[in-house]
Amino acid sequence: MKKWLKTVKKNSIQRILLAKSVITDRRGEGFVDTAVKILMAVVIGALVLAGLYLLFSDTILPTLTERIRNMFNYRG
Hints:
By secondary structure, the chain is mainly alpha-helical.
């Protein structure tokens, strides 16, 4: 019985120390950090795409369609 109690005590101390080391571990990257990085990438990508859409729809596309119409205008 004493041997069994010593084994249980030793295992419980090891598990407590392991849990403590996992909790106090400052290395690595957490799930929240990764989620924030992904969210930032999506938002920045959406802003860049919106800016490109505004640039192309107002500045480039109207002159492009006008030139294409003039190029294929067979009336004269």
